[in-house]
Amino acid sequence: MKGHLYKRILSRLKIGNIELPNRIVFGAHPTNFASRNLLSDRHVAYYRERARGGAGMIVLEEQLVHPSDLPYEKALFGFSEEIIPGYRRVAEAVHEHGAVVVAQLNHSGMQSEGSTAMHVLWAPGTVPDVVSREVPKAMEESDIAEVTGGFARAAGHAVAGGLDGVEINAAQFSLVRQFMSPLTNRRADSYGGSLANRLRFCIEILKAVRAVLGEDRLLGIRLCGDELAPWGGLTPEDAAEIAVELEKLDVLDYLTVSAGSLYSLHLSAATFYIEPGFAVEAAAKIKKAVRLPVFAEGRIHRPEYAARIVDEGLVDGVYMNRALICDPWLPRKLERGEVERVRECLSCNQGCQVRHAMGKPLSCAVNPVAGREYEEETAGLRPAGAPKKVLVVGGGPAGMEAARTAAIRGHRVILWEAGPAPGGALAACAHIGEFARLLKTWARELADCGVAVVTGKYCRPEDVLAERPDALVLATGSRTAKPAFPVRKCPAVTAREAAVKPDGVGKTVLFWDEVGDRVMARAVEKLLAGGKTVYFVTPDLFAGGKLAATLELTPFYRRFMAGAAEIFTSSLVIEVDGGRAVVENRFGGRTVTLTGIDTLVYNCWPRPDESLYLALKDRVEEVYRAGDCLAPRGIAEAVRDGYLIGKSL
């Protein structure tokens, strides 16, 4: 049954004059791996691993076509001849494993970052970007011709570098889409007004690029199937009409369809809040209108779903970017009938969203070697020289990954978990399908590599000493600090406790949040879903500050604003006494007294749980700390800690 399900998605697909080995594509995304804005050893290893894992086609990180565009500091200079040797190295690495490789060519237009290069933004007009609020320069016709030439020049570099073709970005973060859209193109010349005029820039680019590529190399375009703007903008009907007009040029080999624009940035890498395949409907509408192969992208992370939409003929193939960051071997596992061994992407965006000024390199919350493949090629997991008895205390992400990695290397591993099942901090998110499935995958991996898991085991120092391990890994997590304000005669629980057991919380809740993280969001949502009245207080200017970087803020706010009884930002809780709470604004000094409070739920900054470490660090020869008990951070850091400890034992 499973073999039949994946038969079509694993079948070959001809696009242009090239045949893909399957219909799974690893699409373009920022990595921040560049060295001097050129492809690095890190890129080569990263793309090689996805080709080894079975991706049918790989689309390289966007290549800038003109010096007027620098959306992030380590973007790749496709306009420079110096990029060609890097292309050759990547092409050789990818072709060795049978995959096709193309470069995405792009100019970000008004969605670039003028302050990075101190260059004025170029755009169809002077409409400011909704994020940076920066007003761009309206491009003159000479600017348009220069950028068009830049696309052709960059395509020539791809040809010289041995790539199989190029993909033009005309979707999110794209000047080409900005010319297509009536929201951002308000020109009165031959490049604005009617759809035919708004398409002129794109058509000129496609013709110029095809002239450079010749007939043997691929030319694809990534279209916006729906801008999902609050007013106007490109609709699925517009996108289908655009696709028809572009197909008439007879220069394209395939279309890729995404959704979202500068007015819906949270969909550029949709989180677990958003339904899977949110752009598939628009892609299917385009597929009905054209003969070209059509690919869909947009939170297509589960193999079963990807296979179904291909099998039903909604699209010809799928882009599974984050899924292949998380598990590069997903296609090979499907080929071998091992879908249950796929590490599923959480859609959490904790490490993989790096298109911003911070410049940190791409990573993954649950794949500890994502972005570090170049290190693993020379110093990956090796069999243990002398197998040890390893005791891991704590079954959260850090503990599970340490246990798994150590066992793979041949150590005899025992994992003690105080709760009824491994999970640790992830238990607060276990109601979300992706997190629940990840915990099942981890449990299966632990069983497969022979880890002895003991649950319900509250560990004391004497228990560890009696076990006599050769190495001790402490992954005991953290504890939430108590609020600084006085609390009298009022039940109080942590946000994590409220998320796991919302029924244990009273009907009317005072929610104090200092952190603005995912724990807060899950707890608030569970309380609201349970019909609780929630008075939310935070000292920050807005709720959920940590959710912005992971693109969770907008969908969270839609739920939050609809359900919260009252929200007090820039405010402090002065005291809680019985059912009464006093809240004061930090800036204006305005004081509000709330009554009828049944329970205080608090989300204060966590503190490492160091008790076992302090008791045992001088009594066991090898002691390691991983995850929050070392320093409270995120899932990605915890998993990486666990992996490195397991690797080093």
TrEMBL record:
<dbReference type="InterPro" id="IPR023987">
    <property type="entry name" value="CHP03977_oxidoreductase"/>
</dbReference>
<keyword id="KW-0408">Iron</keyword>
<dbReference type="Pfam" id="PF12831">
    <property type="entry name" value="FAD_oxidored"/>
</dbReference>
<keyword id="KW-0411">Iron-sulfur</keyword>
<dbReference type="Pfam" id="PF00724">
    <property type="entry name" value="Oxidored_FMN"/>
</dbReference>
<dbReference type="GO" id="GO:0033543">
    <property type="term" value="P:fatty acid beta-oxidation, unsaturated, even number, reductase/isomerase pathway"/>
</dbReference>
<dbReference type="GO" id="GO:0046872">
    <property type="term" value="F:metal ion binding"/>
</dbReference>
<dbReference type="InterPro" id="IPR036188">
    <property type="entry name" value="FAD/NAD-bd_sf"/>
</dbReference>
<feature type="domain" description="NADH:flavin oxidoreductase/NADH oxidase N-terminal">
    <location>
        <begin position="13"/>
        <end position="337"/>
    </location>
</feature>
<keyword id="KW-0285">Flavoprotein</keyword>
<keyword id="KW-0560">Oxidoreductase</keyword>
<keyword id="KW-0479">Metal-binding</keyword>
<comment type="similarity">
    <text>In the N-terminal section; belongs to the NADH:flavin oxidoreductase/NADH oxidase family.</text>
</comment>
<dbReference type="InterPro" id="IPR001155">
    <property type="entry name" value="OxRdtase_FMN_N"/>
</dbReference>
<dbReference type="GO" id="GO:0008670">
    <property type="term" value="F:2,4-dienoyl-CoA reductase (NADPH) activity"/>
</dbReference>
<dbReference type="InterPro" id="IPR013785">
    <property type="entry name" value="Aldolase_TIM"/>
</dbReference>
<keyword id="KW-0288">FMN</keyword>
<dbReference type="InterPro" id="IPR051793">
    <property type="entry name" value="NADH:flavin_oxidoreductase"/>
</dbReference>
<dbReference type="GO" id="GO:0010181">
    <property type="term" value="F:FMN binding"/>
</dbReference>
<dbReference type="GO" id="GO:0051536">
    <property type="term" value="F:iron-sulfur cluster binding"/>
</dbReference>
<protein>
    <submittedName>
        <fullName>NADH:flavin oxidoreductases</fullName>
    </submittedName>
</protein>
